[in-house]
Structure formats: C-alpha cells, structure tokens
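ping. complex inputs:
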Amino acid sequence: MNDYQEMLQLFMIYVILPLLTIGMLLTLWRLVRGPTFADRVVALDKLSVMAIGLILAYGIGLDRPVYVDIALIVAMLSFLATVGFGYYIERRV
Amino acid sequence: MELLLFGLSALLMLISTFFFIVSGIGLVRMPDLYMRMSATSKAATLGAACAFLAGALYFYDNPSVALRVFAGILFIFATAPIGAHMIGRASYARGVKVWEGAVIDEMKGCYDRSTYSFYSSPQQHQTAAAPPDESGPAAQAPTATSRRTTP
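pong. complex structure:
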C-alpha cells in the first residue's frame, strides 16, 4: 500500500463512480420513458453492461480482486436476460 | 513502474466512463429503437472492455485476474452483437416502427409471421409459403415430405 495506490482508489471512489452514476441515470430515463417494450429491454441491457463497469471500479476502490469474478458473472447473466427477452418479444401472441 | 500502471488504469477507467456516458446520451437522444441499439451495443461494449482492462492493470501482481479479464472481454465481444441482433430482429418482426426520416427499409414484407423466419425477398417469401396449401402430396418435393415426417 503506497501513495499511488491510495490515490487511484480515491480516484475510483470519488470521480469514476459519480460519473458512472450520471450515465446510469441517463439510461434509467430511457428505461422509464421508452415508448415500446423493446426500448426498455435495450435500456436494461445497457444498464447491466454499465453495472460491470461500476462493479470493477468499486473493486479497484476496495482493492478486492473478487469483484472481477462478479463482473464476469453479471456479463453472463445479462446476455441470458437479453436472449430471453428477445425470444419473448418475437414469440409473444 | 507502479505509477505507470496505475496511471494507465485510471486513464482506461476514464475512457470507459466516457464511452458509457456517450452511449447513455445516444440512448436518450436517438430517434429510433434501431439507432439506440447501435449506440448501446457499440459504445457500451467498448466501455466494458476498457473497464476490464483497467482492472487487469490494477491487479497486475495477480495473474489469475488477468486470465479472467481476458475471458470477460472475449465473452462480451462475442455476446453483445448476438443480443443486439436478437432484440433488433424480434422487434422488427413485431412491427416496431423505423424512424420516419429513414431513406430505405430493405426488409419490408420479408417476414413470415407463421414460421417466424425472414426471407431474402418478398417474392421468395410468397413462393415458399404457398406450396403446402394448394399442391397435392405427389407434387411436393421430397425434402418437404421428409421435413414434415420428422418429429
């Protein structure tokens, strides 16, 4: 633990996380507003991809390598959710 | 050495945040579902890849993290176009409107709702959909009968 590492962790917590939150709020606006159901699905997909970046920034800020695994699992689950929603949009009566 | 690695990590995280915010602005401002989907599937994928690389540079003394980062980038680059393609295909099939300023819609009339499949031209769609109704069993092609008998 030295100065550079501490500076990077503070940078992640106090600069990157608020900026990512701004982006997530923009996405959330489309999720609430979206005229069609597919718009909401696209916004949800992007929200989960942004959650990957958020988890990685938080993991760097806390100095825990386990968060990389969590980001990987979130990526896989978001792909599953997207495929399921796509199938549902096409086949629903 | 550490200054270089951590500085590169911070720079990559900033680039990733920039791409995420740009894709969020695109998601809010674009007029059409398909344009919004292009904004999210390109810029957000690049942002996630940059975030993964920043994690790999920060945990540089832990090689297993680098392996997981490699797997994660590969997975995201493989699956994001597949997901975007599925959503776009399904929403076009269900009749989500293309932006009224669009110049050409090449897939108009190419979707067969009874078989859930696209054909490459509207004429091909009609000829492919016609034979099971009007032609007898002798006139049918052997491929069609074999496809019908298979469970």
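Chain B touches chain A through 52 residues (CB under 8 Å).
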